[in-house]
User: Fold these one by one.
Assistant:
Number 1:
Amino acid sequence: MLEHFKKLSYAYNSYTGELDNGLVVERRLSQLKGCFANESAYDQALANEDSLLYKVTAIEPAHGEGDLHYGMGILYPGKIGNEYYLTKGHLHRTRQAAEIYIGLSGDGCMLLEDEQTGESRLEYLGKNKIVYVPGYTAHRTINIGTEPLTYFGVYPANAGHDYGAIAQRNFLKILVDENGQPTLKDRR
Ligand code: S6P
Ligand code: ZN
């Protein structure tokens, strides 16, 4: 098996979210249409600037069953209206595939939503914190701080991403700043 892997160790930076040799994907505000609850605040922010919200660097060697993929994310601080910057969020194409997130720097949360029951959970994600995302669970990362939130994620190579299913019905809960406190509310 070793011969299939060109490289087995990578340098990373906890503060910039950089991971050597990975494939970098950037997500700007215009790519998150429909994610934020306050549509007029979204339109206004976008008219002002198509800001960079987050970057993900992925390493996906995918040589076969049992393999792992992994990646590093950096989600910048900010808000649309009173809703914190967030990632698009997804389910895994292979629904049973779980994932581990490890917080590296900054202050954030993971919003988890059971696809079948709609049950939501909010878990803190920051330095020295690990979050386990079970299978069949839509997951989204949210920056509740004033610094960039960086994290490392590892998932089965066959997990895949399904953005469509959750985009269509949307997460049931939103996380907003209410008097300086992150507060989970129904989307309505
Ligand atoms: C991949 C893993 C993360 C996300 C990243 C960005 O399974 O969950 O690396 O890709 O947090 O979020 P999203 O929803 O835009 O892929
Ligand atoms: Zn995932």
Number 2:
Amino acid sequence: MAESIEKPIGVTARPMRPQEFYDSIKRKFAEERDLRLSYRPEGTAQYTSDLTGALAKYEIDPYASEVTPREPLNDIVEVLFIGGGFSALLTSARLREHGVESIRIVERGADVGGTWYWNRYPGVACDVVAYDYLPLLDELDYVPKDHYAKGPEILAHCQAIARKYNLYELATFQTTVTSTVWDPVEQMWNLTTDRGDRMKARFVICANGTLSKPKLAKIKGLETFQGHSFHTSRWDYAYTKPDLSGLEDKVVGIIGTGATAVQAVPGLGAAAKELYVFQRTPSSIDVRDDWPTDPNWARRLPQGWQTRRRELARMEPQLNEEQKARQAAMSPEEKVRRQENANIEAMMKIHRRIDAIVKDKATAEALKPWYMLLCKRPCFHNEYLPTFNRPNVHLVDTRGKGITEITEMGPVFDGKQYELDVLMYATGFEVQKTGIYNQIKGESGLELNDKYRDGIRTLLGIHSHGYPNLFIMGGYQASFQFNLTDMLQAQGDHIASCIEYARRHGIQAIDAKPDSEQWWVDEVIKHRGKTSRNQECTPGYYNFEGEFQRRQDGNYNGGFFHYCKHLTDVHARMEDHFIFVRKSR
Ligand code: NDP
């Protein structure tokens, strides 16, 4: 999710050309950004994730043909997770280690896996090295098959975690939580679902992910299209066939060129009769160094190897004395300038790679991204760019404007009608602040979204005052990590420790103190204003489509090392940061 853009990038910070060159590229970046902002001043409102009525079909689960009938549940559990992806799985593993038995996962899909349950489009894989991304490898005694894990292996790993920690027993699938209301008398959460359940839970963990609700661009006439269509996170294999042979005689269109499309396009290009890729802004595509895991390396891995690997990854980068002195001698402006110049060099390398691979010059030009690297999610793929050399693959570059009209035959751009058999939406996901589909009402009856109306307010991105025993995972005001599972594990460890603390001390309810919450909001704001990159970036979900003034609503940008340290410090001084309600004796 959001901004990691304040981090230095891994290229030399020394300017390599006259400053005028970098300044001219920055001007071009600004022009491209302004062009997009002028087309879409409405920001995030350009999208809809209200997939009801004519749009309801875009959210139907294609992987579970029927909803399994069951009686409504009216029981009590100690810990309830809303969502069954990595957040729930990782935290549950730690809770089990603390002896917590009563754990329920409530999940909208028909199995655990979250993102990896829903995203099964062809080519789906993770860009983070598998030995880091797949969690609990020590505990499960598993070594991933390849340097980068593919979607099916990740989903299977999620299922293996659920089996190992006995999480299927109380889990309830194909169920959406609709309300979560605190009962101050019983000191418990009351939850209702779309399956008529009325459950109670002492602790509730919002583990619904930040990018889990598919969204569609509000395109005129979208619902009039008479061909077949679906969102990439609801891939219709009944139509395409698992090997995509169903597309052999089809004219296929895909809208969007983000990380999803980059992985899906190569397979589509190879399978479809014709493929039209409708681009608004290109992604940066770097090399992907993938290889099968060496069995000899895997065999020699010592016990606890992944834990050790993660510890090393979490350590603060150490500068030598010379580097420290050089940094100290540099003005803040000079630091920013060097970092920007290095960033531009990295982007120019991405451009050169395009020129070297894509044969048609106009297509190559259109595929070049004009923004600072990390303004948008960087992508890594070896087949995406060569796909545009296929005679059946056509890039429709909308030069920042996007597709604004769809007729019954397909998209229209620049007066040209594209007649398609099938249209795929790779338009991404709504960025959630709290629960989706779910109203969360705290101690005073205030809805969490209403509390957040003027800006998110949390302690560590996890706790929010007035919402006792509620924990939010993977959300805003937490740190950003390219390896998201590492972040989720850090949060999960903290949450499990809080619950363990409450159990050990006879505490029924634990709530963040207002002062601690204010301290954290201030920390978040303090670390967000370091550069104006957020404002300067081309619009995308990283910067709320250009709504850059939402200062509290982003990530904590103080770095993962410091975030983990804050987690530890807060835990070491629980009495200072939390209000407790103890069990009456
Ligand atoms: P994104 O939000 O990143 O991309 C949406 C795409 O749709 C953008 O290219 C956007 O253009 C485009 N778009 C929107 N409206 C229109 C329109 N009207 N006409 C043309 N194009 C349009 O969604 P993704 O599903 O690709 O990725 C979401 C996130 O999921 C990633 O950023 C990443 O965090 C994660 N992910 C990770 C993967 C990995 O590990 N490799 C793979 C897939 C996803 P514009 O850029 O102009 O807004």
